[in-house]
Design goal:
- The complex is a heterodimer of chains A (288) and B (462).
- Chain A is an alpha/beta fold and 288 residues long.
- In chain A, the strands form two sheets. In chain A, strands 1-11-10-4-9-8-7 form a seven-stranded mixed β-sheet, sandwiched between helices.
- In chain A, a hairpin with a 2-residue loop joins strand 2 and strand 3.
- The longest helix of chain A has 14 residues.
- The radius of gyration of chain A is 20 Å and the shape is globular.
- In chain B, strands 1-2 form a two-stranded antiparallel ribbon.
- Helix content of chain B is 76%, strand content 1%.
- Chain B is mainly α.
- Chain B has two domains: 152 residues, no CATH class; 235 residues, MetI-like fold (Orthogonal Bundle), CATH 1.10.3720.
- The relative contact order of chain B is 0.09.
- In chain B, helix 6 crosses helix 16.
- Chain B has 16 helices and two strands.
- Classes of the chains: A alpha/beta (288), B mainly alpha (462).
C-alpha cells in the first residue's frame, strides 16, 4: 500500500495505519445485515492466522442462494484470504490456520471427516490471472469432469464441454477450434474459459478472486455480463477492487477492513447509504 | 624473448590505450563544456581506442601463429643442399624433423650430418629473424590504429555505437569458432571414415553381424580374417543404454517430482545436492563398483535362480550406469518442474484434483520439454560412457540382447582400437573413425526425434 497524503486531512502526513488503526473494537463490529434466509454457506467467527499473525478476525457472514456477494476493501484487508477459506484453498499454504465454523449446506467443511476433493468440486474458483492449463480448449473444460469421473462416455463429455462453454458465453468464439491450446486465446477469452472449466463440474458456489483485474474494459464487460447470468444457477462470491464493478454485478456487498468485516448489506444500500464511517470513507474514495 | 612477450605487450598496450582514450575524451569534454556535450561516455572512447589498438595486433599474431610452421619450413628447405632437396617428400619431412630436433633439442640421430647441422642453424636464425619482424609488424598494427583512434576522438564521435558494433563482431566470432570446430571435427571423422570404407565395404560394416577387428600381417597368420560388422557393437550399446535409462528415467523423474512437489524446502535443500553428488563420482569408481560388487552379486543371484550369468554382464554395467545418470534426469527435471507456475497448480487443485492428479495432468505436461531435454542429456551420457562398460560388461562383441551376457559398446571398441601402438593407415584403426561417425549419426537422429516429440506434445504456459 503506498502512502499518500490526503487534502481532506489538511495535508498532515499521517500513515494510513495511524489514521485507520485507531478505530476502537466497538467500531470494528460488523454492522448491517450479514445473515440471510436459507443461506448456501454460513460462516461464524472465522479467524485466519498466518503463522502468528492474525489475518482475519471473527468474520461471520452468510452466502445466499442465487445471488452475488461482492467483497470490497483496501489491499491486504483479508478479503482474498477469506475467499480462499471457502473452498479450503488455504490448505495448500503450510503456515495458514483457520478457526471458526464454515458450513456448506449445513455441513462443516473443516470437519476432519470432510474430504477436500468433493468440496472443491462443489465450491469452484476462478483466479485473478487467467490460468488455463497448457492443454487444448476442450481438455481444459473436460479436466474437472474427467478427474471426478462425471461422465460415462465421450458423447456425454462432449455435451458437458459444450454446455459449459455455452454458459460461459464462449462457445460461438471457440467451437471451431476446440483442439487448439487454451493459452492461445485472448485474456478475456482465457478468463471465460476458466469460468467454463469451473462450471463444468456443476458447482454450487463459484468463488472469483478479482476475475477482471487482468482484463481490458471490453473483456471485463463480457465477464460481468456472464456473472449476472450465472447468478440464476449458482451462488457467487466475488472479490473486487473496482467499486463500480461491485455495484454493477452484486446484490450484497461486504466491506472488509484490516482483517475485520466492517459492514454487510444490500449493494444499493451500501453504496448510497453506508452506516459505518470506514465504509463511507472507502466508497467515497478517501483511501483505498 | 620478444616474441613470447608479444601477447602480454599487446594487452598492456590495450589497457594503456583505454586510459589514454578515456583521459582524452574527458579533456575534449571539459573543453566543449561538460560531459553532457560528449556523444558517448568517456569509457566508450576508452574501449574504442583499446579495441582499435588490440584487435589488429592480435589478428597479425594469430595469422602468424597459424602459418609459422609452413613458412619457416619452406625457407629452410629452400636453403638445403641439392642432394637433400631432391629427396622424396616423406624422406624430406624426416630430414626436416631432424633439423628441428637439432635446432631445439641439440641432439642428433644421424651422428652429426654437417648439412643438417648447418640447416638447423639457419632454421634458428630464420625463426628468430622472422619472429622479430612479426613482433615489429604486430606492434605497428597496434600503435598506428591506436594513435589514429586517439586522434579521432571528438565530441561528435559515436564511440558508443562503434563499440556496440565491435562487440557484435567479437560475439559473432566466438559463435563462429564453436560452429567451425564442430564442422572440423565432423569433417576429420568423415575423411578418416572414408579411408576406412576404401578397404571395407560400407554394407559389410553396416550390416555385418561379426565384429573382430584385425588385419593379417602375413597371409598364413592365425585368425587372419578380420570382420568389421558393426551390428553387435551397436546392439550392445543400445542394450546397455536401455538398461541404464530404464533405471535412470523412473528413479530420476519420480525423485524430481517428489523433491519439487512434496518435499519440504529444508529436505529439498539438502537432498538435491546429495543426489547431485552421484554425478561427481568418477566413472572409474562406478566401474570397479560395477565390476567387483554388482556383477558378482548379479551372478550369484542368477545362480540361485538357475540362470547362467556371465561374470561380466550388460545388466551390471547398465544398472550402475543408470545410477550414475540419475542426477542428470532428476536435477534438471526438478528445476523445470519447479519453474511451472503456481497458478496452474492452484487452478487444478481448485477443481478438486488431488496433488498427484495435478502433477500427472498439469505439472508434468507443462514441464515436458525440459524433462525430455534432461532425458536426452542422460541418453547421450549413457551412449558415450566408456569406463563402466570396459570394466563391467567386457570386451567381447557378442551379438545378443540378453542382458545377462557379456557385450561391448561402440565407445569401448573405439578405445581398444586406438590404445597402444597403432598404425594409422590400417583398417583396424580407421574402423574407430567409422564407428565414431555412425555413433554421431545415431545421436543426431535421436536428437531430431526428440525435438519432434517435444514439439508435438509440448504444452506452452506463460
Amino acid at each position: 500500500m503506498t502512502e499518500q497524503t490526503f487534502p481532506l486531512y489538511g495535508g498532515k502526513a499521517a500513515s494510513l495505519q495511524e489514521r485507520l488503526g485507531d478505530a476502537s473494537p466497538q467500531e470494528r463490529k460488523t454492522v448491517g445485515t450479514p445473515f440471510v434466509e436459507e443461506p448456501r454457506m454460513t460462516c461464524r467467527d472465522v479467524d485466519v492466522f498466518y503463522g502468528g499473525k492474525q489475518a482475519i478476525s471473527k468474520v461471520s457472514i452468510d452466502i445466499g442462494r442465487n445471488q452475488v456477494l461482492a467483497m470490497i476493501g483496501p489491499s491486504g484487508c483479508g478479503k482474498s484470504t477469506f475467499l480462499r477459506c471457502l473452498n479450503r484453498m488455504n490448505d495448500t499454504v503450510g503456515a495458514c490456520r483457520v478457526e471458526g465454523e464454515i458450513r456448506l449446506d449445513g455441513i462443516d467443511i473443516y470437519d476432519p471427516s470432510v474430504d477436500v476433493v468433493p468440496l472443491r468440486a462443489r465450491v469452484g474458483m476462478v483466479f485473478q490471472k487467467p490460468n488455463p492449463f497448457p492443454k487444448s480448449i476442450y481438455d481444459n473444460v473436460a479436466y474437472g469432469p474427467r478427474i471426478h469421473g462425471l461422465t460415462k462416455d465421450k458423447n456425454e463429455l462432449d455435451e458437458i464441454v459444450e454446455t459449459s462453454l455455452h454458459k460461459a458465453g464462449l462457445w460461438e468464439e471457440v467451437k471451431d477450434r476446440l483442439r487448439e491450446p487454451g493459452t492461445g486465446l485472448s485474456g478475456g477469452q482465457q478468463q471465460r474459459l476458466c469460468i467454463a472449466r469451473a462450471i463444468a463440474v456443476s458447482p454450487e458456489v463459484i468463488l472469483m478472486d478479482e476475475p477482471c483485474s487482468a482484463l481490458d474494459p471490453i473483456a471485463t464487460a463480457k465477464v460481468e455480463e456472464l456473472i449476472a447470468e450465472l447468478r440464476t444457477q449458482y451462488s457467487i462470491v466475488i472479490v473486487t477492487h473496482a467499486m463500480q464493478q461491485a455495484s454493477r454485478v452484486s446484490q450484497r456487498t461486504a466491506y472488509f477492513h484490516l482483517g475485520d468485516l466492517i459492514e454487510v448489506g444490500p449493494t444499493e444500500r451500501i453504496f448510497t447509504n453506508p452506516r459505518h464511517k470506514l465504509t463511507e470513507d472507502y466508497i467515497t474514495g478517501r483511501f483505498g | 624473448m620478444l616474441y613470447t612477450s608479444l601477447l602480454p605487450t599487446i594487452l598492456l598496450l590495450a589497457v594503456a590505450a583505454y586510459f589514454l582514450g578515456q583521459r582524452r575524451a574527458e579533456r575534449v569534454a571539459s573543453a566543449a563544456g561538460g560531459l553532457r556535450q560528449l556523444h558517448s561516455l568517456p569509457s566508450h572512447y576508452g574501449v574504442f581506442v583499446a579495441l582499435c589498438c588490440a584487435l589488429p595486433g592480435l589478428a597479425v599474431f594469430l595469422v602468424w601463429m597459424a602459418c609459422e610452421e609452413q613458412v619457416i619450413t619452406a625457407m629452410v628447405a629452400a636453403g638445403l643442399p641439392e642432394a637433400l632437396r631432391n629427396l622424396p617428400a616423406n624422406e624430406l619431412s624426416l630430414v626436416i624433423n631432424e633439423i628441428k630436433n637439432v635446432a631445439f633439442g641439440g641432439f642428433t640421430a644421424s651422428g652429426g650430418n654437417p648439412a643438417v647441422e648447418a640447416a638447423a642453424g639457419s632454421y634458428l636464425s630464420h625463426l628468430h629473424g622472422v619472429r622479430n619482424l612479426v613482433v615489429a609488424i604486430a606492434l605497428l598494427t597496434c600503435l598506428l590504429p591506436g594513435w589514429w583512434a586517439l586522434g579521432r576522438i571528438d565530441k561528435d564521435l559515436r564511440a558508443r555505437n562503434l563499440v556496440e558494433g565491435m562487440a557484435r563482431v567479437v560475439l559473432f566470432g566466438c559463435a563462429t569458432v564453436a560452429v567451425l570446430t564442430t564442422i572440423g571435427i565432423v569433417l576429420s571423422i568423415v575423411f578418416e571414415a572414408l579411408r576406412f570404407f576404401q578397404s571395407v565395404s560400407p554394407s559389410d560394416f553396416l550390416f555385418g553381424l561379426q565384429w573382430s577387428p584385425q588385419i593379417a600381417m602375413r597371409a598364413d597368420q592365425v585368425g587372419s580374417s578380420g570382420a568389421f560388422g558393426a551390428v553387435p557393437v551397436f546392439v550392445g550399446t543400445f542394450l546397455i543404454a536401455s538398461i541404464a535409462m530404464a533405471v535412470a528415467i523412473p528413479v530420476g523423474l519420480l525423485s524430481a517430482i517428489y523433491l519439487s512437489e512434496y518435499a519440504a524446502s529444508t529436505l529439498r535443500s539438502w537432498a538435491k545436492p546429495a543426489l547431485e553428488i552421484l554425478a561427481g563420482i568418477p566413472t572409474v569408481v562406478y566401474g570397479f563398483f560395477a565390476a567387483l560388487t554388482v556383477a558378482p552379486a548379479i551372478r550369484d543371484l542368477g545362480a540361485m535362480l538357475g540362470l547362467s550369468v556371465a561374470s561380466e554382464s550388460a545388466l551390471a554395467a547398465g544398472l550402475i550406469m543408470g545410477v550414475m545418470i540419475i542426477p542428470f534426469v532428476s536435477s534438471l527435471s526438478d528445476d523445470v518442474i519447479h519453474a511451472v507456475p503456481q497458478s496452474l497448480r492452484d487452478g487444478s487443485l481448485a477443481m478438486g484434483a488431488t496433488r498427484f492428479e495435478t502433477i500427472r495432468h498439469v505439472v508434468v505436461p507443462a514441464a515436458l520439454p525440459g524433462i525430455v531435454g534432461s532425458i536426452l542429456l542422460a541418453i547421450s551420457r549413457a551412449v558415450g560412457e566408456t569406463m563402466i562398460v570396459v570394466m563391467a560388461a567386457g570386451l567381447s562383441a557378442n551379438l545378443s540382447v540378453n542382458p545377462l551376457a557379456a557385450v561391448t559398446t561402440v565407445t569401448v571398441q573405439i578405445v581398444t582400437l586406438l590404445v597402444g601402438d597403432q598404425e594409422f593407415d590400417s583398417p583396424k584403426t580407421l574402423a574407430a573413425f567409422a564407428l565414431g561417425l555412425l555413433l554421431f549419426f545415431f545421436t543426431l537422429i535421436l536428437n531430431f526425434i526428440a525435438l519432434r516429440v517435444v514439439r508435438r506434445y509440448r504444452e506452452h504456459y506463460e
